[in-house]
Amino acid sequence: MGRFLALYGGDILVSVCILAGVISVIRSMRRDKKAGKNCCGGCDGNCANCAAHCHK
What we know:
This protein is mainly α and 56 residues long. The protein is built from one helix and no strands. The relative contact order is 0.09.
């Protein structure tokens, strides 16, 4: 087990950090969507005037 961690410890650490970042971004996006903030990025936070009509 020690040899495995010595060989792949850095890769595992980087993978865990990337996964944590992705999860954080997804949670933030979901939280913003529930709050009605910036539905698609092109409507300046006001989804009622969104030209893309991506919100429902």
